[in-house]
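Data card: per-record layout.
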Amino acid sequence: MRLLSDSIGRKAIVAATGLAMVLFVVVHLLGNSTIFAGPDGINAYAEKLRGLGPFVWAFRAFMGAMLCLHVIFAVLLTLENRAASPDKYAVKKMLKATFAGETMIWTGLLLLAFIVYHLLQFTVHVTPDIVLGTDAKNRVDVFTMVFTSFRITPIVLVYVAAMITLFLHLYHGIQSIFQTIGLNNDKTMPQFGALGKVLSALFLVGYSAIPVLILAGILAK
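The structure for this 221-residue chain is written out next.
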């Protein structure tokens, strides 16, 4: 229990859960990219996931737990830092202020709201834009579902805004993960900083490309 009450322990939990979610973002992007292979590509990918059955739900439960822990301990750390010594915290902000770093808690909460919306849309299927159906092979027609939703401009704007938010969050967060686990020093800091920038940019472009290309008519049925 000491780990949960100690500041260093809390930072370790935030870093570990953050790393798990970064890895998920990579895997999720690879899966989403099957849409560029056309309807058969993403529909076949979705069908394979459905075939995994309990494993998929176990994985979702695990990632849900990682997300909850990450949010809870990130908020606790933020409140703790601001309450411990307001003057010291203000000086620290001036010395190490970056937009991405100073807005971590806010970009994190915005991403949490987006995740809820994304799940309601493409997992629970309760948003009004969703069109459900099956393809010629009697598989869930994920391509049409995604394509129909991303032909709506406000939805595309929401997704692009969310990916910009993800970019800002990971721009600082990836470097913070390595710093927390003790791998970030004066020699490695530039490398990990560059890694955070490159990965964040790749996520921004990769995830935004799908809704933008569909809206622009470049990625079509």
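Known properties of this structure: DSSP finds ten helices and no strands in the chain. The first helix runs from residue 2 to 5.

See the next section for split statistics.
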